[in-house]
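Task: fold both queries, return tokens.
Query 1:
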Amino acid sequence: MKGRMATWRLLDTGAKSAADNIALDSALLEARAKGLSKNTIRFLQFNPPCALIGFHQTIEHEIRTDFCEEESIDINRRITGGGAIYFDITQLGWEVIASKKDFRNLSIHELTEKICNAAASGLKRLSIDAEFRPRNDIEVNGRKISGTGGVFEGDAFLYQGTVLIDFDVESMLKALRIPTEKLTAKGLNSAKERVTSIKNELGYAPSLDKIKHVLADAFSEAFSTTLEEDELTAAELTLYNIKNNYFKSKKWIYSVQEPSDKMQTVSSVYKKDGGLIRVNLKVDVQRQIVRQAVITGDFFINPARFILDLEAALKDTHVDSVTAIAERFFDEKKPEMLQLTKYDFIDAIVLTVAKLDYQKFGMSTEDINSIFTIHKPVNEALKDAGALLLPYCAKPPECEYRNIDGCSKCGLCSVGDAYRMAEEKGLLPITITNYEHLKDTLCSLKERGVKSYIGCCCEAFFVKRQDAFADAGIQGVLIDIENKTCYELKKEHAAYKGDFQEKTELKIDLLKKLLEIRAILVASS
């Protein structure tokens, strides 16, 4: 701040629907950017409960819409970036809407740290040992108690956070597709071990007024301001009334979508500690022209519309030029990012473009998007494959071989077909019975000099365990599996231990195709 006491507004808008709250966010930010209002601390709540995705995310990837519809949970899109969140009346939202100049035009990293430290200071006044955790969380002894994110407009910004007073973890897991992976980031397998709440830390929930009071005092002290309670201005109300219907509309909620024609789309998922990037390229395969690019995921980048502009820059370009165009765009625009770098986005794009080469093997786009590679392109990893790794969950629950390595090839499931094909092609088939067995198997294969393997697992497992696959130091080609997975059924903790009781299906036709391609590659080498 500028070193002088300034008066800010303290605004408490109570509990509103998701659309109403997001319309207010937009109105408050625009009004501040236009100089029509003063710097503001806002408190808000959501009722009914809602599932909110980040500005760059897609409903399809982040939300279980069927569960939300059954439970009357609102679905909407925030104007801020970051990941999907579940918000109910047991949580308190806080926001800082202010001029960048009043914060000495701090970078997004500096602004994030300053505001999060202020919020953490407020929780400390409740005797909760809260600390800022980069990139944008507030934690208590390693457990998340608040997630945050922001957006800029002109010379103004809106930065918001959620304080978990009490928390319905089960509803969160059922409403959202991605956060179980995010919340178990440090090797823990239960979301309950990754989040905490004020009630959990103190043994009781203080009054809402008490929580608001300590947070307001902390923000006031951190920003060298005094706070005065006030209402919305006439200008803000006008903007809110103009915007409200738009933020209720499907045009806004579904404003980021996957390309509709999947048969012409190649996609990939790229994960690092700083976030998750999904790249979809809709390609005119005959002309090798990118007709549409969609880049989504859990990440923070400023300005918010940078990704939209990048997608526009990639449209109608030759696939051979996509990487260079993207890199030049990053260099020219110089967006601000948290932890991720331009090279992470470039690598994600390169990974997607590389999948177009798979078509020379006669694969459909559906096949291509069901394949994930470790370390090497698919042709190199296939040629050197010496083992076939299969998930125990593809065996019938009643099978005597369900939880052990081996198969009688009785013909009652696709695993028997996979064992038979592997043996015919000279590969060693292995049933993976749990996560620890997977790590041990990869280590053993490497020690025995096996250069590569083919495996079957769901995309969610690949995303969550991507580091484990990469760290094993052995090449691999992974094939997605079908049916409801442990992640979709919220049973990944049981699956980790090998106790998942449902049955999945291997994509046996795709596996057969890859084994045939391997035979051709081996014969021609």
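Query 1 returned. Query 2:
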Amino acid sequence: MTENTPTITNIALVGGGELCKEILEKTTSVYEQEGVYAPILAVADPDPDSPGIKLADELGLLTFRNCRQLYDRRYSIHLIIMLTPEEEIFEEVLRTRPPRIRLLSYNVFKIFWKAIGLEERKLRERTEEMETILNGIQDFILVITPDMEIIECNEAFLTKMRYTREDVIGKKCYGVYHKIDHPCEGGLIDCPLKEVVRNKRQIRKIQTRLMADGEKRYYEVNIYPIWEKDGKIQKFIHISRDITEHRKKEEEITHRLEQMVADRTRQVKETHEKLLHQDKMSSLGKLSASVVHEINNPIAGILNLIMLMQRIIEEDTLGQNEVDQFQKYLGLMETETRRTSRIVSNLLAFSRQSKMEPKHVNLNRLIEQTIFINSNLLKIDGVKVVTNLGPDLPDLMGSEDQLQQVFMNLVSNATEAMEAAGGGNLTVETSHILKEDNLQINFKDTGSGIPPENISKLFEPFFTTKKKGKGVGLGLSVAYGIVQEHGGSIYVKSKVGQGTTFQVKLPLKSASARHVK
């Protein structure tokens, strides 16, 4: 016999009275306890009409009139239990039984049976208490087998789901909940029981259910598995709570909040559009006044020179002196015309009408070209240029024309800053910042510097510290916009009386170029 083979103890009862009937009813002839099988095989009583004998006959058990018949080896009786208080019968069985058959007296058995009855009563009372508690809980409680069959439920479930016990007990959970004739296989209906089996732990989730009248409601579902000793699931405790009203309130609050956000967003948008319009009108008025003033001066100068030349021609006194004067006047007219052109060019650039066309740009070559173009101006203003250009700089993607406009503006500003002092040094440096993967350009002058209160205003449109007639304050604003469009940045460091450094950082692949494939 192996360790896992159960021990079998065959039992016979002597005495067919009411106690015998009670035992047979409660044990149903076979009971199992901790791996020990103890079937009741036979009942012995001289009265064939005793209730125990009658029930034994109905159950198909062996029945005898004489208890000695129980000794027959063919029946393999191991234990005789005395269910009659008569001492003579007990003494006879005790004296005549074979040694292989054990005997349990009536008094001893009554003690055990009474104790069992007491525990049974306590268990029944406890069960009734638990049923009362469960039926008093408003959450839905069901007990479901691994085959998805509902074997128990509380009153709250039946009442609120409008079911009777006959509609639920013994039925499949998917049929009761979802009105379908097959297990939930994912998709719109995901089975929480299968999820418990997959994850081997309890779960919590929100589900929708269709009521008997077709109403859709929301439930918070908790599934608790009950495990057997071998690790298999014995049953599921399914607890759910109707959260439909709570869900409706949440949806109502969410809808109100969304509506409030939408209304507020619309108001902010309307206010923003009004402010933008006001700002545009203010900028347009300021731009118009500045442009009219700046362009009117050179045009008035050109007009006066033209009128003067016409008067000289009308007097018909042209000579060498007059020709020299004409050349001088034409030079002044050219200067004023170029100044007007610069003002218009800056305005066009500021309006961002031109679209950047990125291509490979050799930064060092562009810097050298810019300095060469301004060499005459730099020489006239006594500015000495020192270049420290990083070797083997990689090309960057950007607009060569726009970047040259930035560098031209920075060189021009540096020259004008040193003009009043009779000249100075302009140091131009380039380098490749590997960590940031960008190119850095520094323009460092030894001019008069910029007061701290003006630093934050340098890149604002129309802000200028130049003398009247030198510009409308769009140069640095245009430069800032170009650098931003290239995905870069521009910084200023300055000390009054010591000079200013403009630092430009440009990524090797500009922001605009990243969208060009």
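Both queries returned. Flag for query 2: The chain has four domains: 7-104, 137-242, 248-349, 355-515.
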